[in-house]
Amino acid sequence: MSEADLDQLNPDAQAKKLEKIAYENNKLHKRLCRQVGQAIGDFNMIEDGDKVMVCLSGGKDSYALLDILMTLRERAPIHFDIVAVNLDQKQPNFPADILPAYLEKLGVPFHIENQDTYSIVKRLIPEGKTTCSLCSRLRRGILYRVADELGCNKIALGHHRDDILETFFLNMFFGGKLKGMPAKLVSDDGKHMVIRPLAYVKEADTERYAQVKGFPIIPCDLCGSQENLQRKQIKAMLRDWEKKHPGRVENVFSSLSTVVPSHLQDRDLFGFVDLKTDGVPNPLGDIAFDEEPCSTPAPNTISLTQL
User: 192, 157, 196: which is closest to 40 by C-alpha?
Assistant: First the structure.
């Protein structure tokens, strides 16, 4: 509800509406804290004595990540430090003063790394082509170096549940592989631990939380004009599913944590070639007539147990 709409209400109605808004905002904060705390616990993301580098882009997700981690740090039974890091890529019209001012007001240690990756990307990528891949590789290398310089043993990224699902489908549709974006993984140089504490959080919640908290959002002018990215197509597909088939997206996300290698076809993951019968019952073995997960028996269906 806008301020103009609120002004149209009488004082009692205004008070009730404001009370309801405050209640819903508090519920959102509690939900985010619970989901982030659960993800941290499930994957043992943060341990006593860790120094966590929170990568702050100026977008809604990284702001939410920093905010929730600071809240949880105050409640945690362990001690860990937080350092907020922003990579200023020298994009045109980038408001370089916004993040330092915000972080100083917040009272959190921070570091601004100045690297002109914008010019590199623009020089190497033809006009109209996707810049995300090169931009991501350049950022990653710089952030690994900064983590070493700051003595951080964990690198926290603001990827949420929807990012993870989108990556999964991108790899499936366009890469021909079952590969997602894990909540915790050692970096490709083998020296850093990358964590994603927002792994259980929906993007819709970070969007609303950003509005509630009034985060000073900084748009990415480098790639913001690229409207035909494959990721945006996947995002639209997931949102359409969520609207037309409630629960489908949640089931897909749950499936990422419930993998049955024997029922896929990766010969490196499961020993199909050397598989032998041993006469020992196996609950994960093949059933001659598998029941469809969501099937509804037809009216005249005869159960196998009745035969």
Answer: 196
